[in-house]
Amino acid sequence: MPVAVITGGSRGFGRALAIDLAKDGWSLIIDGRDRVSLQEVGDRLHSLGARSTEIAGDVSSADHRRALMQSALQSGSLDLLVNNASTLGPSPLPSLEHYPLADLRQVYEVNVVAPLALIQEALPQLRRSQGKVVSLSSDAAVEGYEGWGGYGSSKSALDQLHRVLAIEEPGLSVYQFDPGDMRTAMHQAAFPGEDISDRPEPESVVPSFRALLASGAPSGRYQANAWVPQS
């Protein structure tokens, strides 16, 4: 039974992915800051017969990250680490001229430092399984959008970490996955008061993610809609 750790698994894309993997017999370790939402997903996973562990907490906490990896160790293996949890930062999105530096530090702590810290903790198990690391990216990592300087630059930094990791760990599959716009709470926070009902549901993106996992594609950055690696 393959084992996956999915951060931010209580809602949005992480929730959709966890449910989809559960249907295929994966053992799952998921987290989220909202205990109620996390428990709801856990109940759904258990109803599918999945072996799952739900750990409430924030990925920026070292103790929480250790708890996730300890749970994976107790599962006997780790085949997939999905760094899905992230933070948008202030909403409405501020210009860089007025971006609060304390908020910027927190964005980087959650979106860059925490994923790398989880990867560091997971590497011994991932090496044994020749596993996969997938972190959620964004078009804001490669395009300049007004107001997106904090979040976008954090995702750009995360992309670069993965490019280097792929070279340093050739035995692993290291992917950055750009899902495109989705109808999520984070996307709504980026556009407060706007109607985002035209954005696709996260469930519609999961098949592209699963196809990437199954493809054996070389490490790289992939877009859900185009599936073309970017340098």
Description:
Strand 5, helix 5 and strand 6 form a beta-alpha-beta unit. The protein has seven helices and seven strands, in the order E-H-E-H-E-H-E-H-E-H-E-H-H-E. 45% of the residues lie in helices and 15% in strands. The longest helix has 29 residues. It starts with a strand and ends in an 8-residue tail after the last strand. The model has no long low-confidence stretch (mean pLDDT 93). The chain is of the alpha/beta class. Helix 4 runs parallel beside helix 5. A seven-stranded parallel sheet has the order 3-2-1-4-5-6-7, sandwiched between helices. It is globular, with a radius of gyration of 17 Å.
Topology readout:
Blueprint lengths: L2 E4 L5 H12 L3 E6 L2 H13 L4 E5 L5 H14 L4 E4 L17 H29 L2 E5 L12 H20 L4 E6 L6 H6 L15 H10 L4 E4 L8
Parallel strand pairs: 1-2, 1-4, 2-3, 4-5, 5-6, 6-7
**Quaternary organisation of the protein chains:** single chain
Rounded radius of gyration (Å): 17 Å
The rounded distance between the terminal residues' Cα atoms is: 34 Å
Structural class: alpha/beta
Count of beta strands = 7
Mean pLDDT: 93
Query: What's the helix-strand series?
Result: EHEHEHEHEHEHHE
Number of helices: 7
Strand order of the largest sheet: 3-2-1-4-5-6-7
- Global geometry: globular
